[in-house]
Automatic annotation (TrEMBL):
PANTHER family: CHAPERONE PROTEIN DNAJ, DNAJ HOMOLOG 1, MITOCHONDRIAL-RELATED
GO biological process, one term: response to heat
Alphabetically ordered keywords of this record: Chaperone, Cytoplasm, DNA replication, Metal-binding, Repeat, Stress response, Zinc, Zinc-finger
Any single Gene Ontology cellular-component annotation: cytoplasm
InterPro entries named in the record: DnaJ, DnaJ_C, DnaJ_domain, DnaJ_domain_CS, HSP40/DnaJ_pept-bd, HSP_DnaJ_Cys-rich_dom, HSP_DnaJ_Cys-rich_dom_sf, J_dom_sf
Protein name listed in UniProt: Unannotated protein
PROSITE patterns documented for this protein: DNAJ_1, DNAJ_2, ZF_CR
Domain named J: residues: 3-67
Pfam families in the cross-refs: DnaJ, DnaJ_C, DnaJ_CXXCXGXG
GO molecular function terms listed in the Swiss-Prot or TrEMBL record: ATP binding; heat shock protein binding; unfolded protein binding; zinc ion binding
Residue stretches making up the CR-type domain: 122-204
Amino acid sequence: MSDHYQTLGVPRDASADEIKKAYRKIARELHPDVNPDPEVQEKFKEVTASYEVLSDPQKRQQYDMGGNGFSGFGGGFGPGGFSDIMDAFFGGGGTRGPRPRMRQGQDALIRVEVDLHEACFGTERDISVESAVVCTKCQGSGCQDGASPEMCQICKGRGETQHIQKSFIGQVMTSRPCSTCGGYGSVIKNPCRECSGDGRVRARQNINVKIPAGVESGNRIQMAGRGEVGAGGGPAGDLYVEIVQAEHPTLLRDGNTLHIAIEVSFVSATLGSSVKIETLDGPEEIQIKPGTQGGSTITVKGKGMTRLHSNHRGDLIVHVEVTTPHKLKKDEEELLRKFAEMRGEKPGEVQIKGHEQGFFAKFREAFGR
């Protein structure tokens, strides 16, 4: 690898101004617009590469410490390297060519709300989407009466025009997009009256969406080629259907697990009973075991949500709360007092539980303490 200081002919302690002046002097002699010889152009690239390193304090420091100065690009002309210097000093590089009229269309996004049952078992939904579609009048050409775009007479189909401008090395020829054709290299003399030459129009279309089982809010279904048609009748982008799951009145979702809360009387909890609850599959009978305590749970296997892209289902967790009557009739109160007396219970007695029992045990289990 050649020494950048030798390439520019400056000492290693040269200032930024000295490096810039040296580069300008050499560039006047070697620039491709002044001397098109291939060997000279290679020399010009080498000089420009040296200037790119030494004009940047960070790259220069890296080079002085033994690096090549081209961080991340292995010593070659990386993005923003040689071409950026060419643009900064000479107003643009080589030929770009005409821009294509046909371009890729944009993606589209629409949100669809589903209920919990639809999210669990999947469904189909017909949606109406307004987007850009190919103009049927001109079939995407943008021209009226079946015509085609004609070559631009200003740029002769190149899509750019050349301009001479003055710089520190003299007159330099640069290229710019043609202002007559907009850089396309062709012009539409008689634009389609339906699409005004764009090759597409906005229209509403109905699309059938298959929503798989197990979706949840935030999931997106990609429908390739159902998005916006590109300018000039270009290929369409994709349509993304984002799922929004509505809340269920009694069931709460947590991933693939469902939760439901029920209340039972203290008699049912004490003696045990059979109760029916509503699930996504319909009524389900569950057993309340004798002595069930408030805050306990019952797991119903396989009655939760379907796992996405799977036939397996999660569980349904039933949270049991025990209700205590607010008011008792006199005879009811007497029966309860007699019941307590039979059990050896006295009004006002409490049992203090240790840290490993009751509330504290549940607290430690829940919070990992």
